[in-house]
Request: fold
Amino acid sequence: MSGPNQTTNNVVSWDDVDYYDEGGFRLDFIGNTGVGDAFSANIGNYYGAGNDVVHGHWLTGGLGNLTLIKVTKIDGTAFDLNCFVLTSNTAVGGGPALGSEQAFIHASANGTTSSFSQLLPPENWGFPATQIFLGSQFDGIKAFWFVANNDVDCFGMDNFFIDEPAPIPEPASLKLLGLGLAGLRLARRRKAS
Reply:
């Protein structure tokens, strides 16, 4: 962060962040002009919702200078990324997504080259937000990073589930799973008759 090291507290928001360390992980904000654009990289209560988020503004959208947001374990060891919350992926600063946004998350087995990439869905600015569940391609990785390929302005994240199980899916997903299991039971009964 610009100036001395700071600690997040769900109340303040820090601008002009160079990198952020927490729980043995480092999140690096990388831009083509380096540190100095206060609007490019933010950590903290950016949306005013009483929680700490990671939020940045991409060079592709014109609001900031970010070209990459990269997360690694400080000791260089491998880890599993199971899910995170996408709080913004929009070409409209502070507004709704247009639907054409192209931001990707990359997994890296060696920490430097991409071994897998996944297109992220467009997401309106702020909350409510969307949980992004990730597959086995994000197990045993040494880094993951985010990039934007087109005019994405605002990009935000929260609640990374690293080396811990992903949260239980939303109730609507559980209801669909229950209906599917009930259908399988009915199919088995029909075959047994």
Notes: The mean pLDDT is 86.
